[in-house]
Amino acid sequence: xxxxxxxxxxxxxxxxxxxxxxxxVLAEFFPEALKQPMPVDLLHLVDEVLPRYGIxxxxxxxxEMGDNLGLTDPSGTLSIDVLLLDDxxxxxLVGGPIANRARATVxxxxxxxxxxxxxxxxxxxxxxxxxxxxxxxxxxxxxFKCAEWQAWALGxxxxxxxxxxxxxxxxxxxxxxxxxxxxISMMQQHLRRLRISVPGM
Length: 201
Fold this sequence. Notes:
The chain has one domain (6-194). The radius of gyration is 16 Å and the shape is globular. It has eleven helices and five strands, in the order E-H-H-E-H-E-E-H-H-H-H-E-H-H-H-H. Strands 2-4-3 form a three-stranded mixed β-sheet. Strands 1-5 form a two-stranded antiparallel ribbon. With 201 residues, the chain is mainly α. The protein has helices spanning 15-29, 42-49, 62-65, 86-94, 100-115, 117-124, 129-132, 147-159, 162-165, 173-180, 184-194, and strands at residues 6-8, 55-60, 70-73, 80-85, 135-137.
C-alpha cells in the first residue's frame, strides 16, 4: 500500500474485531506471543513462516520504493508480495532497537495483507471496481474505514496483544515499548487505540 497521505475506504472495523484478528494471526503464526509478554520474532516469520502462507517479504531499493517504507502488492490471485525498503531490511537482520521501525513496518504491511488484499482483489473483479478502489485524502475517511489506520491497528495488535500487555506488572510506556521491541511513539498510539492508560502516556 502507498504512503499515509491518502487511503482507500475499506469496510468498517472496530478495535474489538481488529484485536480478534490479531489474536488469530498470533495463534496461527507465533502462538508463544499469546502466552507471555515478548517480542514477536518477525524475522523468523518473514523467512520461515509467511512464505508458507503465500506472503513473501523482500527488500527493495529507495528508487523502487519512492517515499514508502513498505509496499504491499494486491495484484494477482494467490501469493502476495511485500516490499520493504532495503535499509529497513538490513535493520531487521541486525535486530535490537535499531530494528523497531522495520518491525513496525512489516507488521503494518502484514495488516494490509490480511485485511485489505482480499477486499481489493474482490473489488477489482466488480464492475464498480474503479470507483471502489479510488484513493481519497485520509481526512475524508473515518478511522474505522481507513486502510492505513486499520493496518496500523492490526500491526499493533500483532506486535503487542492486549492479552499479554495485561500480564505486565507496573507497566509504563517505556517498559512496554522495550518488552515488545517497538518505538515509544508506536506504543503510545497503540495503547490509545486499545484505551489502556499507563504512566508515560
